[in-house]
Structure formats: C-alpha cells, structure tokens
Amino acid sequence: MDDSQAAPAVRPPVALGCFGMAAAVVAIVGVVIFGIQYLESGTSTRVALGPAASYAPSSITFEAEHNLYIVRMGDGTFFALSDLDAANRAKPGRRCRVSLIPTDDPALPGILELHRNDFSPRAAGSTAVFRETCNGALYDATGVRLNGEGLNLDRHEYSVDDSGRLEVKTAVRHCTRHEGADYFAPVDCP
After folding, report:
1. DSSP assignment, residue 63?
2. Helices (DSSP H) in the chain: which residue ranges?
C-alpha cells in the first residue's frame, strides 16, 4: 500500500477551535470589565481616603467622590457623615444634599443664635452648620438635627489603617435621632 492511499489524519475543524478560543477571550474580558465596574460602583464596603493626619483638628472636609463629610473634632476623633439626609434618601427622584453653610452667609449668625442650645455637646462652641435647602433641615457638625422632626445625618464607621489612612465603611449606616438628652438615640435605618 502506498502513502497516497493512507487514510487522512482526522483533525477537528479549525473554525470550531477558533470560535471556542474567541468565546473564552470574550468571557474573560467580560468578567474583568464587570469586576471593575462593580468595584468602582460604590458598592465597596470600605473607602480609603487620605492620611488621617491630613484632616486638621476642628475641620470639615467634603469628600465629593464618596458623598461624605469627614468631620474631625478638636480632640482628634472623626465623624463620617452622609451628605444625604433621611428625607431625601426616601425620595426616588430629585434629591437635595446637605451642604456646609459658608461662614460668610448672612443667615448663619441668626441660625447659630436660634439653635445654639440644640447642638450636641460634641459640637458645642462650633459655628459649623449643615443645611438641606429643599426642606430647610439644619444639622450641627456631628450630624444632629437642629430643627423640626427628623433623623440625624447618617454616620458611617471609620478606622485608620496600618499606613495611617482614614477608611470609611460606606455600606454600614448608623441612623440616630435626637431624643431629649440623648443626641444619638439609635433607630432603624429607613
């Protein structure tokens, strides 16, 4: 029998192999893109911010990328406050966020005079007031509601990592209400 009559070797179709390889590459790329989108979507439970030492005592810094106010008290402790109050969190449509009233706002002295006794003991002596303009809600530097009925600003847990960076757990909200002498009475988060 000569070589011309030998049975040809059976090979899988080349197109099937190429299709399989292309499908695998597309699947891997899809998983990577989904993972990046998921991690950058704000669903991460920890947000790493700047060095804790970069937040001056008695300062308030707005971290716009994370919708957080980082309040560093005079004693060096922190409050990580949401810029979205409970009334606006409940709205599915347009939401108003709280902002710090500028020190040159002509209304600030009157607000301080009217609500000075409503400030939490930790915020006593502070001139910082947050205001939500849609409903007129006011909050002191620790997030305590100063006027009307309603919850305080949501607080998030924070920690300082081994490298000295401030980390905030944005997935964990602590909801409280000012009730009599208890400025941070725990309540269920809406």
Report:
1. E
2. 14-40, 86-89, 108-115
- Chain centroid to CA 18: 45
Look up the pTM and report it: 0.75
Token pair of 137 as six digits: 């809600």
CB 138: neighbour CB atoms within 10 A?
A: 19
What share of the chain in percent tops pLDDT 70? 77
Given pLDDT bands bounded at 50, 70 and 90, which one contains residue 50?
A: very high
Q: CA-to-CA distance for 102 and 106, rounded, in angstroms?
A: 9
Per-residue pLDDT, 92: 77
Residue type, position 187, single letter = V
**Residues 27-59: b if buried by 16+ CB within 10 A, e if exposed:** eeeeeeeeeeeeeeeeeeeebebeebeebeeee
Quick check: 69 and 81 in contact, CB under 8 A? Answer: yes
Phi-psi region of 164 (alpha: psi -120 to 50; beta: other; left: phi over 0): left
Contact in structure between 123 and 130 (CB atoms under 8 Å): no
Residues 6+ apart with CB under 8 A from 150: 85, 86, 87, 137, 177
Report the pLDDT value the prediction gives residue 95, as an integer from 0 to 100: 82
